[in-house]
Design goal:
Blueprint: E1 6-15, E2 25-28, E3 44-52, E4 61-62, E5 76-84, E6 87-94, E7 103-109, E8 117-122, E9 126-129, E10 136-144, E11 157-160, E12 191-193, E13 199-203, E14 215-220, E15 231-236, E16 240-241, E17 247-257, E18 265-273, E19 279-283, E20 293-295, E21 301-302, E22 304-312, E23 319-327, E24 333-344, E25 386-389, E26 391-397, E27 406-412, E28 417-421, E29 425-426, E30 432-443, E31 448-455, E32 461-465, E33 468-469, E34 475-482, E35 489-496, E36 503-514, H1 533-536, E37 542-544, E38 548-552, E39 556-561, E40 564-568, E41 571-575, E42 578-583, E43 589-597, E44 609-611, E45 623-632, E46 639-643, E47 647-649, E48 653-654, E49 658-659, E50 668-674, E51 679-684, E52 687-700, E53 705-709, E54 713-715, E55 721-723, E56 731-736, E57 739-760, E58 765-771, E59 774-779
Parallel strand pairs: 20-21
Antiparallel strand pairs: 1-2, 1-3, 3-4, 5-6, 6-9, 7-8, 7-10, 10-11, 12-15, 13-14, 14-24, 15-23, 16-23, 17-22, 17-24, 18-19, 18-20, 18-23, 25-28, 26-27, 27-36, 28-35, 29-35, 30-34, 30-36, 31-32, 31-33, 31-35, 37-40, 38-39, 38-46, 39-42, 40-41, 43-44, 43-45, 47-57, 48-49, 50-51, 50-58, 52-53, ...
């Protein structure tokens, strides 16, 4: 008979040369185990054995690793750099197999033989430097262990990130990005600080201003910033094209850490630039409730908020740039994440159908257009990405260029000459595109066009459209174009319609596809209300004061929801208390998903509805999910309880993960699928949200304990689920340093309101406890 596959592993360790092993610790087949409390000056032995589904265990096998001591890790033997669409891919090998815990430092220099700066640390043998500017950089890599001892550097290699002119794989993108590296997911790339010591990159939870991302940038207070006008800025390298009079909105999540000094402020701001990219002025939030700033608590100022500024592009403005600012900041810290900048429709007339959808706005980067700024090559024979049609193509440089080092000049050899894109773009009739470009007529009056020329399946032109000008001065122009009937593709034409010898010039060609979001505009255009209720109400918002309760007979129950407030961005919507009747069977434990159908988000009195199907609770754009209530139908008499989802406190320990508060969606969690045999497997987390909830402490006869919400259902030895407050005297599954058994609950103590985390992982049982290695089986009943 073939051996069955392992479902978990058992690990033990000891100091080298001693006889006493540690208590056995378990880990799932898909997770790693972090061992803490070791002495880095000593060596340790580790052993591992496999455990099958039926409980059979293999012999102990030495792992072959020891904790790094003062010995240097092995050298990085080879290093290779490859240009890829999202930067430079670095891969390396080591001279020998490295011990456990070794990481790799990636160093980069902007010049050959120049100064190297630490770029990142990697735990694998590869790393991608996300640069796509086409500039060559130099790299080297070395290993570093837990003790901070480093190995020898690798050989130095050079690499260059692909640009759109290199044919990077970007044709699938439909829109561009208005802010480069908005969530600081790797480093501070795409951002330039005014003062480098003041800004630095960080990762982790607790200080992150956006709870969905654990990466952010930090500004540290400095005595050099004393004074009401002292400002330190972080400037983005991306921009959007604007015209004077257009409204632009910029936002960013910001959080105050360590009590910044009174008067210190943090926010996103807009930098207005002219045709030469010189700053004209800046716009900042005014501190009102609608446009808040982060700092000391007060009117319009919050210790954590989404800062927001809406402003009108001034005269001569051509570009708008999102910048992050710290003002008068001498003590404490501010953290920033999720920067955005967009052109904002100023009236319903700017929404294409005036009522039923919000449109995308022009891309501010050139991924959809090859060599869009005509900087890819100094040679115009040929111009990368473009071919002349009845026209000669050349470069206008120095003072004649619109921006950067050069612009494209098109000189006609007969009437109607153009630069034609080599790229062919697929389309379907009815698709809507936005094209923009900087244009000028130098010889004759053209007119000059930036056009989309559409073709049918036979290659016949079936239509065209785009902005035009007869002006002899540089300016930016844009136009929305709809693909005509019969069209299957188009090319871009930068066209001069003047006679032979006419000359026009072009720069900054941008293309976006405008897509319907199928949303209904409600209220002002700047509010989250423009999104479907089911989208922002269920995921981007939070309930204040919401809790559930129920009274049950063996076959019926009434679930009640308290009066509560929905906080959605700057909107607060109040709802009255409500109730709904449900049915069940005696002795059953049933989870109900509770929701309102409130299409206009009016709040007040709404009909509470309940379903046992989580999909039903979200299968309507007008549907607003409140949460879940777990009802235990008594076998006789009446019963009651409270709902809202099962949770463990954020400081609970989970096998192979550390504290529960660090769990995120897509993490793998060890699940107990059979309480009798403790058979386990890995499951993927699909929901992880923090909140405050009334909690209890479960304590077993041997002292194993768990802090969890009063609504948490705990699996008992008879396979029933019992709410945590009712567990006294019941037998429940526990794991005690790898010893799996059932143990009686000695006490359940009220510990008040605590921060908990709702975790959903395949509607099964996971292990959690107040002490690492000592766990209780906890059922995760959630959406």
């Amino acid at each position: 008979m073939a051996a069955s596959a392992p479902v978990q592993y058992e690990i033990r360790w000891r100091e080298t040369g001693t006889l006493q092993w540690s208590k056995v610790t378990t880990a799932s087949v898909t997770s790693e185990l972090v061992v803490t409390g070791l002495d880095r000056s000593k060596s340790y032995d580790f052993e591992v054995r496999a455990v099958s589904a039926c409980g059979a265990k293999s012999v102990w096998v030495p792992s072959g690793y020891s904790v790094p001591n003062s010995s240097a890790p092995p050298a990085v033997a080879t290093l290779a750099a490859q240009s890829v669409s999202d930067g430079v891919l670095l891969t390396w090998t080591t001279s020998t197999t490295p011990p456990a815990g070794v990481e790799y430092e990636v160093w980069r220099s902007d010049t050959s033989g120049g100064t190297y700066a630490l770029l990142n640390r990697a735990r694998t043998l590869s790393y991608t430097d996300g640069i796509t500017d086409g500039v060559v950089r130099w790299y080297k890599v070395r290993a570093i262990n837990f003790a901070g001892v480093t190995g020898a550097y690798s050989p130095i290699v050079s690499g260059r990130g692909k640009t759109s002119a290199d044919g990077a794989d970007v044709t699938g993108q439909q829109t561009g990005i208005n802010v480069g590296n908005p969530y600081f997911q790797k480093d501070l790339s795409k951002w330039t600080p005014d003062h480098s010591p003041g800004w630095y990159w960080e990762t982790g939870t607790g200080n992150n201003p956006d709870p969905t991302f654990n990466t952010y940038v930090v500004h540290a207070g400095s005595t050099a910033m004393a004074g009401s006008t002292a400002t330190d800025n972080l400037r983005n390298s991306f921009h959007i094209n604007v015209r004077p009079g257009q409204q632009v909105v910029a936002t960013c999540c910001v959080k105050a850490i360590g009590a910044p000094n009174a008067g210190a402020l943090a926010y996103a701001r807009i930098s207005w630039r002219d045709i030469n990219n010189a700053e004209l002025s800046t716009s900042v939030p005014d501190g009102s409730t609608a446009y808040p700033r982060c700092g000391s608590a007060g009117t319009g100022t919050y210790t954590q908020c989404v800062t927001k500024v809406v402003a009108t592009a001034p005269a001569n403005a051509v570009y708008a740039v999102c910048e992050l600012a710290a003002v008068s900041h001498t003590t404490g810290y501010f953290t920033y994440c999720g920067a955005t900048i967009n052109i904002q429709p100023s009236s319903l007339d700017e929404v294409p159908d005036s009522s039923v959808y919000t449109r995308g706005i022009q891309s501010s980067v050139a991924e959809l257009v090859d060599n869009a700024d005509f900087e890819a090559s100094t040679s115009s024979t040929p111009v990368p990405g473009w071919t002349g049609g009845s026209a000669n193509l050349s470069y206008a440089t120095a003072g004649a260029a619109f921006a950067g080092n050069q612009s494209l000049a098109v000189t006609t050899s007969q009437q109607y000459g153009a630069a034609v894109s080599n790229r062919v773009y697929p389309c379907s009739p009815g698709d809507v595109f936005l094209i923009s470009a900087a244009m000028v007529n130098w010889i004759n009056t053209g007119p000059t066009y930036a056009q989309l020329v559409f073709f049918d399946k036979n290659g016949t032109v079936v239509g065209s459209g785009g902005p035009s000008t007869t002006s002899g001065s540089w300016n930016t122009y844009q136009q929305q174009v709809t693909a005509p009937a019969g069209s299957i593709s188009f090319r871009l034409y930068l066209q001069n319609n003047g006679p032979a010898g006419s000359q026009s010039a072009f720069d900054g060609v941008r293309l976006s596809r405008l897509r319907s979001l199928a949303t209904e505009v409600k209220g002002t255009l700047s509010t989250q209300r423009n999104l479907p209720t089911v989208s922002f109400g269920n995921y981007g918002s939070g309930w204040i004061g919401l809790s559930f309760g129920y009274n049950a007979t063996p076959t019926t129950a009434t679930i009640t929801a308290t009066a509560a407030t929905l906080q959605a961005g700057n909107d607060t919507i109040s709802y009255n208390a409500s109730a709904v009747g449900v049915t069940g069977s005696a002795g059953a434990t049933v989870k109900f998903y509770l929701y309102y159908d409130d299409p206009n988000l009016t709040g007040g009195s709404q009909t509470l509805q309940a379903t046992t199907n989580n999909i039903t609770a979200m299968a309507n754009n007008n549907r607003l999910l409140l949460g879940t209530a777990t009802v235990v139908f008594p076998t006789s008499g009446t019963g009651g309880g409270s709902g809202g989802g099962a949770c463990v406190t954020v400081d609970s320990w989970l096998p192979g993960h550390g504290e529960a508060g660090a769990i995120a969606v897509d993490d793998l969690l060890e699940l107990v699928v059979d309480a009798a045999t403790f058979r386990r497997r890995a499951g993927r987390v699909t929901y992880a949200v923090r909140k405050l909830a009334p909690c209890v402490r479960i304590i077993t006869e041997s002292g194993i304990s768990l802090d969890c919400s009063t609504t948490a259902p705990i699996l008992c030895s008879d396979e029933s689920l019992v709410l945590a407050p009712d567990l006294a005297g019941r037998l429940i599954p526990v794991s005690d340093f790898g010893d799996h058994r059932h143990e009686r609950v000695a006490a359940v103590e009220d510990i008040g309101e605590r921060e908990v985390i709702h975790i959903t992982c395949e509607n099964s049982v996971f292990l959690a406890g107040r002490t690492r290695g000592r766990y209780i089986g906890h059922h995760n009943l959630k959406p």
